[in-house]
Design a protein that fits this description.
single chain; 162 residues; mainly beta; 10 strands; 10% helix; 46% strand
Amino acid sequence: MRNGIKLLALTLLMSLGACDSNSVFDDYKSVPNQWHKDSVITFNVTPLDTIAPYNLFVNVRNTNDYKFNNLFLIVTLDYPNGKVETDTLEYQMAKPNGELLGTGFSDIKENKLWFKENVILNESGEYVVKIQHAMRKNGSVNGVENLEGITDIGFRIEKPAN
């Protein structure tokens, strides 16, 4: 009986922690066994407010099969009126000793990576976010064709904390 009460309390605590009032958009797309260099992950987003600032994040879930210390991504933001912004981003994914960064209790780690801070998405309509990897091995001109160890790519929009 005592273990049942502890389990119930833990479940209640976890569910309260899952409430996130700052989240405006949060979605993930699964990556098959390997993320092909030409595979583009796409998110369609319609912001709720065209005058409020937002923080934008790329979320990455990876396993111990991820063999690199960093991650290069090409992220494109297509505005409703046709304007396009493209950024090449580099994120640190491991400590110098090779231990993967991120949160998680199993071999799957989750990383919440900054994309843009205090951005005002001032155009009404649908924005399209496109994410693809741009990884290369040292000394190689050609990109890594099939990137192993990435299981999911996500995109998140939050209201800035007060």
